[in-house]
């Protein structure tokens, strides 16, 4: 009988619970035990934060958002901020303690569910000798080693639904609505939702944009008796010759630079150059929430069961990946090697251009 521990790290994504559901069920069929480590690696630091997961614990969770064991994007065991009694903050490496606890508890494998940051941590544990299997999770769909990550389809559906609703209010007031979506340095969410949601312009990180081109698109709309516009902006988009707009967040022992603010900047510029009433909206974490779509539920369950099969085979230090139409695995080193960008020659980009969407170039 094997003992498996699961962790969910980084930002949450619809489908995390579906992976947990699939892992628990697949392990139960094999007579294995499954534990969840709360809030990333917290359960492997404090045994009280480890939770046994049986069939009754995961009943019906496949349809719910979030993660029943919690997640964190501030718990890197290799660089953990620690504040002593004197108020001094030091960065310490507690990975050895986590590995010792992993062995002390008799675990046979760690299934790490996360994006590039969490999988990089998993890779470093694999280098230490921990048996690790990775599962790709990110709404940004920017892991190059897999055709698709779960959470992306739901995020796109959420953004598209928001655009559908904004059309009526924008049309009623002859307004320009600028919608900022997530995606970091990759424009997948912006591209998919922008095309599906009837945007007039989509601004991607992969194409530094000229704001005058967007203004021209809006003025051209008016020549065709369309007095409103919907603009979708990826949070990592940049004006031509400019820099990414960010904001700084300071916490104990660290300062983090976060993307955000480009939507308001674009709205201000469009207001000045067109003279039209312009509003901006940041969808933000709304894209991470809610029940996963059918596609994401199925993909998450496929990933979860594929991870258990890798454990059964003894294929550690790898991440499960979708290589349509089936499942495969890639080394964790290859999984975090590069991020997937929008291919500007793809049919999706060509579709956007052919139906008259401005891409800012």
What does this entry look like structurally?
It is a single chain. The protein has 361 residues and is an alpha/beta fold. The chain folds into two domains: 3-150 and 292-335, Rossmann fold (3-Layer(aba) Sandwich); 154-289, Phosphofructokinase domain (Rossmann fold). The chain has helices at residues 16-30, 95-104, 116-128, 152-173, 188-196, 211-223, 262-274, 294-313, 332-335, 347-354; strands at residues 3-8, 33-37, 50-52, 80-83, 89-92, 109-114, 132-136, 176-181, 201-203, 229-234, 246-251, 254-259, 278-282, 318-323, 326-331. The strands form four sheets. A seven-stranded mixed β-sheet has the order 3-2-1-6-7-14-15, sandwiched between helices. Helix 3 (116-128) links the parallel strand 6 (109-114) and strand 7. Helix 1 (16-30) packs parallel to helix 8, helix 4 (152-173) packs across helix 5 (188-196) and helix 6 (211-223) crosses helix 7. The chain starts with a strand and ends in a 7-residue tail after the last helix. 47% of the residues are buried. The model has no long low-confidence stretch (mean pLDDT 93).
